[in-house]
Design the sequence.
């Protein structure tokens, strides 16, 4: 028998089969075992954070979140700060930042260096306020076992965090996109761009209706059609933009996401052809990219995603203080006023995105910091094509016991570290209504036909 002829062929076949198996694994990631999912009732919180505090007690244990009503609050009104009487434990400045370097993102370090006289971190006591209804916890436990990631799209998940025990960076990012933020809500929208010389320019004022079909309490995996977030914005100002409108329906499959805009000059509703990624969004007057909404939003296939690790970091948190600060006091020349911000020490997932082969984006490298308790992307760093640290993204999670939950009511933005320009979306500071929970909207609310009916000029 001539084995020398067949052995290389067998070896090649084995190598090929192994390569195919690896390729298949890269496209499909299955849920965790029932034994591992049981950790969500013991050492992990129901949404996937670590229940225990850290060694020195600066991060406390999670004991159920903040669900007690905030005195004086009524749904549809201003949201008070439950920690208004507290003072900072310490302050981080450009002079002492080296002492805290391991707990600061690259973007925060760059801001401290760029604006040493004004940018400071007032660090407060840490509160783990994150919470959700029991049915969300139950769905999250089910998702942990049943959920799969196929070609970067989650399947078999509904009504809870899709991958509470993530095995990949892409799973963690879907946890952010499908985080708990209620079923339906209304936000008084206001966008502000600040120029490099400190002039605040209002880019849009209007009414925002939002719906999260993924979190319909009476829904199910079988009923869910893939549309997970719907939005309708109608501008009332500034005068140049009054009457503009935009409607969007985010889909699990990015190819099925649809966005329409009403253009006043044409008196027509048109479909936005590329409502994705680094395309400027009409809702921000072109200042922000589509995938910068809520720090990150949209499809994942432009990047390769990697879990860098989990670490303790100082992040914006329990940001009711910012909501309670009048706009004139909240806006500094080059950033949100340091005294209006509340920073706390929390554990975060660090997720790195590098441009995938054959893809393009103005930010070839990005890093996101996801709060372990809520999965909110609270900070982000973006590098440009020249490898320079370009932008720092931020959001401000707010305590909402009536939800219950800690979430970010569109209060996000970014600092351009190169040009000095910055953007603050949904400046709710002076709004009489700050994130109003509402009954479920009719599905027709988020259609181009409804947008036509709302046109005012």
Sequence:
């Amino acid at each position: 028998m001539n084995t020398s002829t067949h052995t290389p062929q067998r070896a090649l076949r084995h190598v090929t089969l192994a390569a195919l198996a690896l390729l298949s694994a890269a496209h499909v990631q299955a849920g965790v075992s029932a034994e591992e999912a049981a950790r969500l009732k013991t050492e992990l919180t129901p949404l996937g954070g670590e229940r225990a505090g850290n060694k020195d007690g600066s991060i406390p244990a999670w004991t159920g979140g903040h669900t007690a009503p905030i005195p004086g609050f009524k749904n549809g009104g201003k949201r008070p700060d439950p920690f208004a009487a507290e003072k900072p434990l310490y302050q981080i400045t450009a002079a002492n930042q080296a002492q805290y370097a391991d707990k600061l993102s690259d973007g925060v370090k760059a801001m401290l260096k760029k604006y040493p006289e004004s940018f400071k971190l007032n660090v407060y006591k840490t509160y783990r306020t994150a919470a959700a209804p029991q049915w969300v916890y139950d769905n999250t436990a089910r998702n942990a076992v049943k959920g799969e990631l196929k070609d970067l799209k989650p399947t078999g998940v509904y009504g809870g965090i899709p991958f509470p025990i993530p095995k990949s960076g892409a799973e963690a990012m879907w946890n952010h996109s499908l985080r708990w933020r209620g079923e339906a809500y209304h936000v008084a929208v206001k966008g502000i761009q600040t120029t490099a010389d400190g002039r605040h320019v209002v880019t849009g004022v209007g009414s925002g209706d939002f719906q999260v079909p993924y979190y319909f309490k009476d829904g199910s995996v079988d009923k869910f059609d893939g549309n997970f977030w719907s939005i309708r914005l109608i501008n009332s100002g500034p005068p140049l933009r009054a009457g503009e409108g935009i409607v969007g329906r985010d889909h699990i499959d990015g190819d099925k996401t649809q966005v329409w805009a009403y253009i006043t000059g044409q008196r027509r509703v048109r479909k936005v052809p590329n409502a994705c990624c680094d395309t400027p969004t009409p809702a921000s007057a072109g200042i922000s990219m589509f995938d910068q909404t809520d720090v990150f939003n949209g499809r994942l296939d432009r990047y390769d995603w990697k879990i860098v690790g989990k670490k303790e970091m100082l992040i914006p948190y329990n940001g009711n203080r910012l909501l309670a600060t009048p706009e004139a006091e909240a806006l500094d020349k080059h950033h949100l006023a340091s005294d209006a911000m509340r920073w706390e020490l929390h554990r975060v997932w660090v997720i790195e995105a590098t441009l995938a082969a054959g893809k393009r984006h103005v930010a070839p490298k990005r890093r996101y910091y996801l709060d372990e308790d809520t999965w909110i992307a609270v900070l982000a760093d973006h590098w440009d094509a020249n490898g320079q640290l370009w932008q720092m993204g931020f959001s401000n999670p707010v305590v909402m016991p009536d939800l219950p939950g800690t979430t970010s009511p569109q209060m996000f933005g970014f600092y351009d570290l190169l040009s000095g320009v910055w953007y603050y979306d949904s400046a709710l500071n002076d709004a009489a209504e700050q994130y109003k929970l509402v009954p479920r909207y009719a599905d027709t609310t988020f259609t181009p036909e409804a947008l036509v009916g709302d046109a005012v000029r």
In short: The chain has one domain: 90-454.
